[in-house]
Design a protein that fits this description.
This protein is an alpha+beta fold and 400 residues long. It contains nine helices and 21 strands. The radius of gyration is 23 Å and the shape is globular.
Length: 400
């Protein structure tokens, strides 16, 4: 699988935005939109102050800056002292503000590296299920002797391509980061930013597998230099894959049709190659996806026709969830199938495509009415939410 990352800047609704597209086999699989004027808080670590404690909703609100309140789940306090207004905690933003909900924070800090993640409140060793059994065993033997009681370690898929020395050096660096944050947390004042998360494009490079990354292309000099500096220090094998694009006659956004891709990713109807189509609607409570046969015609019997359209739809639905960054509860109304084996096959195929998504997505079940239930982790705003915010900002300016 050849992965290409494209980063450029475009003006949308009079707002300058950084756009990142992730292409796999020359097809856009992911689009990220980042307004230049409002950088994301996701991943940042702060000293926060408890504002309100609301046991009736199972949460508290913690301010990470004056008038910037975040939701904190009280379930994380199990076995710890209770919270009171005015208490100070070191917290990390783990979810952006979504729809009408405030950003979400956690006291379980996640410090990510290229090969592993160190967590501060979940002891134990976790290893990516995508790794082969031999790699899992080897990595466990390397890391287990260096495990600490005050934190946990999760070994990522990329670790399969690393030498023992690289693994142990990164683990030591992550431990040092954790200790540095703990020290600063004791000495800094409330609302201090203890650690800023790396920019989204560095996280994308960090997360890309060695065997799949083809190249990273940008026409932005500052980002190009940042990527090259990162590779020089942390990922030398990817240094030659960072390319600077220069063509005044054909801008990078036009070359990859990014404006068209953004438009397509906000339309309700998505056509399938077979002639069938999807209707995707994001409501306040959940995302609804309806699969329709449309213009599909075949001489085969109806059960085989439904199977073919549904399998094609499963692949495209997995792509659309990632492309649009849809999250939460997702209900999919596939074309009804009478044969139990066909239903089992469909769920298996859908799950296999969802496993390729860097954001955790899970097939829950198929109900008696043949509605397939899927969940996808909430982290960032959906693409349509971001575009609505840009439009709203433009309307406010026009009204003023």
């Amino acid at each position: 699988m050849n992965k290409k990352i494209v980063i450029t800047q475009m003006t949308l609704y009079q707002s300058d935005c950084l756009i990142m597209a992730v292409l796999e086999e020359e097809r856009i699989m992911e689009l990220q939109l980042h307004p230049v004027s409002s950088p994301s808080l996701l991943g940042n670590i702060y000293i926060g102050m408890v504002d309100r404690v609301l046991p009736e909703i199972g949460g508290a609100f913690i301010n990470i800056a004056p008038h910037l309140s975040c939701y904190y789940p009280l379930a994380e306090r199990k076995g710890k002292p209770g919270l009171r207004p005015g208490d100070e905690l070191v917290v990390q933003v783990c979810q952006e503000a979504l729809k009408t909900k405030a950003p979400k924070v956690t006291t379980n800090l996640n410090l990510s590296g290229k090969y592993m993640v160190v967590t501060t409140e979940k002891p134990g060793l976790g290893i990516s299920a995508k790794l082969e059994p031999e790699d899992r065993k080897k990595l466990k033997n390397w890391v287990s002797p260096l495990m600490r009681e005050d934190c946990g370690v999760i070994i990522r898929t990329n670790a399969a391509f690393a030498e023992k020395k690289e693994i142990l050096e990164e683990l030591d660096l992550l431990y040092q980061r954790m200790e540095s944050i703990a020290k600063k947390g004791k000495n800094r004042t409330c609302y201090s930013l203890l650690e800023q998360a790396p920019p989204f494009y560095l996280r994308a490079l960090q997360d890309a597998r060695e065997d799949s990354l083809q190249n990273v292309v940008t026409d932005l000099p500052d980002i190009f230099n940042t990527l090259r500096e990162y590779c020089q220090e942390y990922r030398p094998q990817a240094f030659e894959k960072i390319h600077f694009y220069q063509d005044s006659l054909l801008p990078l956004g036009k070359l990859y049709s990014l404006e068209h891709a953004l438009t397509e990713a906000t339309r309700e109807k998505v056509w399938l190659k077979s002639g069938g189509f999807l209707v995707i609607q994001q409501t306040e409570a959940f995302v609804a996806v309806d699969v329709n046969s449309g213009k599909f015609t075949t001489r085969k019997k109806a059960s085989e026709a439904a199977r073919k359209i549904n399998l094609e739809a499963a692949r495209e639905i997995a792509r659309q969830l990632r492309l649009r960054n849809l999250y939460g509860i997702i209900l999919i109304d596939f074309i009804n199938m009478d044969h139990p084996d066909h239903r089992d096959e469909l769920l298996h195929v859908l799950a296999s495509f969802l496993r390729k998504d860097p954001v955790r997505a899970t097939v829950v079940d198929m109900t008696r009415l043949q509605i397939t239930e899927v969940t996808r982790k909430k982290m960032r705003k959906s693409l349509s939410e971001q575009i609505r915010e840009l439009k709203h900002g433009k309307e406010v300016c026009e009204n003023e």
